[in-house]
Each structure stands twice: as structure tokens, then as C-alpha cells.
Design goal:
- The structure holds two protein chains of two kinds.
- Chain A has three domains: about 55 residues, Alpha-Beta Plaits (2-Layer Sandwich); about 180 residues, Rossmann fold (3-Layer(aba) Sandwich); about 120 residues, TPP-binding domain (Rossmann fold, 3-Layer(aba) Sandwich), CATH 3.40.50.
- Chain A has ten helices and 22 strands.
- A seven-stranded parallel beta sheet of chain A has the order 11-15-10-5-8-9-16, sandwiched between helices. In chain A, strands 19-18-20-21-22 form a five-stranded parallel beta sheet.
- In chain A, strand 13 and strand 14 form a beta hairpin.
- In chain A, helix 7 runs parallel beside helix 10.
- In chain B, strands 7-6-1-8-12-9-10-11 form an eight-stranded mixed beta sheet, with helices on both faces. In chain B, strands 2-5 form a two-stranded antiparallel ribbon.
- Chain B starts with a strand and ends with a helix.
- Chain B is globular, with a radius of gyration of 22 Å.
- Chain B has one domain: HUPs (Rossmann fold, 3-Layer(aba) Sandwich).
- By secondary structure, chain B is of the alpha/beta class.
- Classes of the chains: A alpha/beta, B alpha/beta.
- Chains A and B meet through helix 5, helix 6, strand 11, strand 13 and strand 14 of A and helix 3, helix 4, strand 9, strand 10 and strand 11 of B.
- Strand 14 of chain A pairs antiparallel with strand 13 of chain B, so a sheet runs across the interface.
Chain lengths: ~400, ~260
């Protein structure tokens, strides 16, 4: 299994080592290619090798007797918090609808919680053919263990071929446990999904290496094919008022959770959340010091109440809380207007905001990568330009 | 109390660049570092050790032989023991197989009270291995933790679990696993004494078999997911770039443009 290196053929040119996205290849003492544990057998090197010394040996057939034909249907995990559906649930229904139609199967939303039956109606209106509801006191507050136990039980019973969940702190917290419980693959934080019509496989695309590369991932022999999907990557399905479907109420036998949620604190209720803002003003390293976010807040106010975003550099410097962070390790945003002030535009930032409708960048450095994604780029000192924008907006 | 901190050596992705001509990754000169989130996990463990005398902290990693570097760094900062799981049998593992391999390594250390991970690694960004290991171990996992206190009786952890726009105060019985966010703390530097201890340390790699792992559950063959294609993100082309304008002129032009597009 894995990468095979033909030492006879290898000419020691190092092309494979330069190509490897994981840094797994190097030349050994004899000048021959060698791979270490970082190798994921992705195959990038096989194309780079000029002499065909590298090949990927197909993994042994290991389907462990899983009859793929038994697994049918597309599922979306409908995330709710404190009795309100999270926006990503509607985005997943929009994308799930597309996938379900390509596969010719119904679309199911799975709803977990306590006293949440009223949330089924909006799920039908946004495209669910069926809602499976597990309403149980053990699911009143989110704990990874109880939610994973419930969803695993439903997956085993109904056998969906694909299962999507939001890549939120909740989705990324408990869905990995479901994947372990049912012994299948889970692709994290996808930004693109499609179906291979010939094989019915879910093609899952996601950024890696801080967004420097994209990887397309399949789960060929295990079911369900599971993915978490970033909020704001897909557009929400429009509501069709009055649309309805089949509501299935499941009675699960769940243990009382060992983990207890004592309190939920909305410490950020005075702050606009970049995740669902229409206009975002973001500050980066160019701000120089934390106090200078005040200037951006003034601009945000002049824009009628924009949210404040921050690059990783600004958050890591301790200038502003991680609540504001936009990018690969922060939030993904898709506002109407994104104004980047003093943000250089490292790729890990760009992947979190480059699908914004209109991007405006203000930076002193004319070569800053942020200008590569900006619809309007202003080369200039933000401390001179931003006050003028505020003045012009107020005029 | 025994705390195991799981660390990963990663390429510093902020240094990775794309060669615009070949559209491939340029990795030359990219250093290997301890995953930044894992630094916060280690710091949390060390602070708990200070608050609870008698606590032992073991730093664990899975990776190539050179991953020993981050274990030495961990010892330099105050970890007591290390475990380097280094085995070709785990090559090509996805998160299912990786979390299994690490769960076996954790179990081989006895029954730790707390297993701490960084929220995610900056190369893969999956955030799945911590919760996955906890599931293999059959213990609870609280993800995205920024604060952790252990009760004096050593039986429960009270943690702050952050979400996108709020935080929860959560009580978990030990043993349990945590994944830690960056805002949890500021990682310390290695002390001089620690550095000396680290220098003397000879790290013997451990094989998966030695941790009691079932070979059928390791590596590529035991990984349901496969990377079928890797490609560079489509190159973006910027729009208008205004250079050499007076600030007031640029600002007025911008606001006029935004109004024109009905964006403000």
C-alpha cells in the first residue's frame, strides 16, 4: 500500500521532493528518493517524476463487507442552538438538494434537541423532503457525547449514503465522534462538494496548508460519506412557504450526559458578528497597535453599523479577541462589502473572505497580495485614507 | 494527576508560498514548528501542573524521527516525559486511523486523567483528531476550550468552551479530553534548566505495535478517505488599483463608487 519508490529507476533529481505538498520526500544518503511518515499517498509526486520511478499502489480492498447499495439518501444535520436554527443548516439544505437530485434520492434533515419540533417546518420550507426528529432531554444542551450517540444511532438505523454538517464549533466538535463510532471517513471544513455520477461518490474539496493548496477527497468504500461544510460557502436555499414533508419522530434511548453545561454566556452580544454581517471592516498588522481599532470602529459606524474583523496577525498580537478573526483558522465570511485596512492578505486570510461580493483594500504596500483579490485597491496610508472615507461618508 | 498533551510537528504554513509560474507549493526554507494551537495545549497542561503539585505531564507526538524536536521543546518548557510514535505502518493515515493510533499510544501510558490537544493543526486544519481520540478512548471531549480548572478532589474539570459568538461553562468528569483555542493562554518559552534537560534527553521512538495497536486499523489501508487530487487554488485577479491619489481624492472616489453600486 502507499507510495512505491523504484530505486533502480530513481535518478535522484529531487523533483518529487520539490513537488510534495507534505514535505514527506527527500533524498537519502545514496541520492535516492525516500518518503517519511508524512506521506499521505496523494500521488502529486508520481506526476512530477520524470522517469516514472514513483507510483501509488492501490490500497488493499478493505470494504469490510459494506454493501454500498444499502446506503441511500442525503442527510443534512440541522444545527440548532438554544432553540434557533443556525444559518448553515439552510445553506446545507441548498447544497444537499443539489446533491440529492444528482443522486436521485430524497433529502433528509436530522434535528436533535429538546422541545425543538417547531423547527421542522422551516426545514421543509428550505428543501427537506423528510425531517427525522430526535427530541430528548439528554439533548437539551449540546454535549459532544450525547449528540454523537444520537446521530450515530440514527445513521446505523437509516443508512444514508452522505451526511453533511456545518463546520461550526458544534459540528466539528461532535461529528468526528460519529465518524469513529460508525467507522467511516469524515472530511473537515469542505468548501466544495459534488457527485461523481458514475460511482455515486461524494467529491469533497477542502483547503489545506493554510489555504495554499486544495485537496479533493473521496470516501469510496465506507458509508456514510461524511463532510463538515464551512458556513457561508454555499448560499442558503430560498424558503418555499407552505412546502412540507414527512416528519419522523424517533424515540432514542440515551444516557444522561456525563458532561454538563452549567451556563451559556453571550459575552459578545454588544459586538456584531462578522459571520453574518453585510459589511465588514477588517484590521491587520498595518494598524500597528490595538488602540487603532478605534479608527476602524468609527468607519464601521459611518457605514451604518458594520462588523469589525481582524487578521490572524492582529489577533495573535493580542490587539483584539479571536471572536473577530477572519480566515482559515477564524471565520469564513461572505459580506456584501469587505474593507481590509492594513491587511497584507496572506493566503490563510484570503480563503476566509475572498468570496465576499465587493472587496476593498487599503494598504501602503502596492505589492500586498490583498490587492490580488480586491475589486478596488487603494495604495495609501490607512491612517490618512480612512479618516477621509469617514468624512466623505458623513458628507 | 497525569496529563497527556498531544502535539504535532507541522510546516510553518505562513511561510509556504505558491510559485506563480508553476502554480506549485514552494517549500524551500520552510521551517518545521510545533503546531501553534498545541503550544497552547502544552501551556494549559503546564499551568495545571503548577496549580496541582504532583501532576505529571507527558508530551506525545506521532510523526517522523525529526518530530523528536518538538518533544524536546516540550521538555524544555516543563513536560516530564515524552512518547514519540514513529512507524511507517501509520503512513497515509487519515483522521480515523490517526486518532486510533494516537488513542493506543495514550492508552499505553496508563490511564491519564486528562488528554489535551490543540484545537486543530495548521497543516491539515481538520480539528478531528482530538475528538476522535477521545471517542476511541471512550471518554468525553470538550472542544474549543479557553479555560480549565480541575477540582481539588481531581474528579472534575470545569472549563469554558467557546463557540462562534458565546461561551459555555461546562463541567466534565475526569478522565476527559480537551481541545484548546489560542486565546487560552500565552505559551511560555523554554527555561534554561529545561533546555539543559532537553539536550540530555535521548528519545527512543515507539512503534505502533509496542502500544498494542491492531495493525489492521493503521495506515492507508485502514483509512476510509483518500486524497484523489491536489491542486492550487485558482489564481485571483484583482480589480482596479488606485495608486498615487491624494487620500481625500481616493476616499471621495471610493464612496462615490460604493454609492453607485448601491452598497452604502
Amino acid at each position: 500500500m502507499g507510495l512505491l519508490i523504484d530505486r533502480e529507476k530513481c535518478i535522484g533529481c529531487g523533483a518529487c521532493a520539490a513537488q510534495c505538498p507534505f514535505g514527506a520526500l527527500s533524498l537519502d544518503a545514496e541520492g535516492k528518493a525516500q518518503a517519511n511518515e508524512a506521506c499521505t499517498a496523494c500521488g502529486s509526486c508520481t506526476e512530477a517524476c520524470p522517469v516514472g520511478a514513483l507510483k501509488i499502489e492501490a490500497a488493499e480492498k478493505k470494504s469490510a463487507g459494506i454493501d454500498l447499495a444499502e446506503w441511500r439518501g442525503v442527510w443534512v444535520y440541522a444545527e440548532q442552538r438554544e432553540g434557533a436554527l443556525h444559518g448553515v443548516s439552510f445553506e446545507l439544505l441548498g447544497e444537499g438538494r443539489v446533491l440529492a437530485e444528482k443522486l436521485g434520492v430524497p433529502l433528509t434533515a436530522v434535528l436533535l434537541g429538546s422541545g425543538v419540533e417547531a423547527l421542522a417546518a422551516p426545514l421543509f420550507e428550505h428543501g427537506a423532503d423528510r425531517v427525522i426528529l430526535a427530541d430528548h432531554p439528554a439533548l437539551a444542551a449540546y454535549t459532544a457525547e450525547a449528540y454523537a450517540e444520537a446521530l450515530s444511532a440514527l445513521v446505523r438505523k437509516y443508512k444514508p449514503e452522505a451526511l453533511l454538517a456545518g463546520a461550526t464549533t458544534i459540528g466539528r466538535g461532535f461529528v468526528p465522534r460519529v465518524a469513529i463510532e460508525v467507522r467511516t471517513g469524515l472530511t473537515a471544513d469542505c468548501t466544495g462538494l459534488d457527485i461523481d455520477p458514475a460511482t455515486r461518490r461524494l467529491l469533497q474539496t477542502r483547503p489545506a496548508f493554510g489555504g495554499n493548496i486544495m485537496a479533493c477527497i473521496e470516501c469510496p468504500d465506507h458509508r456514510p460519506q461524511m463532510a463538515t461544510v464551512r458556513p457561508k460557502v454555499f448560499k442558503a436555499a430560498p424558503a418555499q412557504p407552505g412546502r412540507t414533508g414527512e416528519l419522523v419522530k424517533e424515540t432514542l434511548d440515551l444516557k444522561a450526559p456525563a458532561v454538563r453545561v452549567l451556563e451559556t454566556v453571550h459575552a459578545m452580544e454588544n459586538e456584531k458578528n462578522v459571520a453574518d454581517a453585510e459589511i465588514i471592516v477588517t484590521g491587520g498588522r498595518g494598524l500597528g497597535k490595538p488602540e487603532n481599532f478605534a479608527l476602524l470602529r468609527e468607519l464601521a459606524d459611518a457605514l451604518g453599523g458594520a462588523a469589525i474583523g481582524a487578521s490572524r496577525a492582529a489577533v495573535d498580537a493580542g490587539w483584539i479577541s479571536a471572536f473577530h478573526q477572519v480566515g482559515q483558522t477564524g471565520k469564513t465570511v461572505r459580506p456584501k462589502v469587505y474593507i481590509a485596512c492594513g491587511v497584507s492578505g496572506q493566503i490563510q486570510h484570503l480563503v476566509g473572505m475572498n468570496s465576499s461580493d465587493t472587496i476593498i483594500a487599503i494598504n501602503k504596500d502596492p505589492d500586498a497580495p490583498i490587492f490580488g483579490v480586491a475589486d478596488i485597491g487603494i495604495v495609501g496610508d490607512l491612517f490618512q485614507v480612512v479618516p477621509e472615507i469617514i468624512r466623505a461618508l458623513k458628507a | 494527576m497525569h496529563i497527556v498533551v498531544c502535539l504535532k510537528q507541522v510546516p510553518n504554513t505562513t511561510q509556504v508560498k505558491i510559485n506563480p509560474e508553476t502554480n506549485t507549493l514552494v517549500r524551500d526554507g520552510v521551517e518545521s514548528i510545533m503546531n501553534p494551537f498545541d503550544e497552547n495545549a502544552l501551556e494549559m497542561a503546564l499551568q495545571l501542573k503548577e496549580a496541582h503539585p504532583g501532576t505529571r505531564v507527558t508530551a506525545l507526538t506521532m510523526g517522523p524521527p525529526q518530530a523528536a524536536d518538538i518533544l524536546k521543546e516540550a521538555v524544555g518548557r516543563g513536560a516530564d516525559d515524552v512518547l514519540l510514535l514513529c512507524d511507517r505502518a501509520v503512513a497515509g493515515s487519515d483522521t480515523l486511523a490517526t486518532s486510533y493510533a494516537i488513542s493506543c499510544a495514550v492508552r499505553s501510558l496508563g490511564a491519564p486523567d486528562l488528554v489535551i490537544f490543540g484545537k486543530q493543526a495548521i497543516d491539515g486544519d481538520t480539528a478531528q483528531v482530538g475528538p476522535g481520540v477521545a471517542d476511541w478512548l471512550g471518554i468525553p471531549c470538550v472542544a474549543c476550550v479557553r479555560k480549565c480548572e480541575i477540582a481539588a478532589d481531581g474528579k472534575t474539570a470545569t472549563v469554558e468552551r467557546v463557540s462562534e459568538d458565546a461561551y459555555d461553562v461546562v463541567e466534565a468528569p475526569l478522565p476527559c479530553a480537551l481541545t484548546v483555542v489560542k486565546e487560552a493562554n500565552v505559551p511560555r518559552m523554554a527555561s534554561l534548566r529545561g533546555k539543559m534537560a532537553a539536550r540530555k534527553l535521548a528519545i527512543e521512538p515507539t512503534t505502533a505495535a509496542a502500544t498494542g495497536a491492531d495493525p489492521a486499523l493503521l495506515g492507508l489501508a485502514a483509512s476510509p478517505t483518500h486524497v484523489v487530487r491536489i491542486f492550487s487554488p485558482p489564481a485571483k485577479t484583482g480589480g482596479a488599483k488606485w495608486e498615487g491619489l491624494e487620500p481625500a481624492e481616493a476616499a471621495q472616489k471610493l464612496v462615490a463608487e460604493l454609492k453607485n453600486r448601491k452598497l452604502v
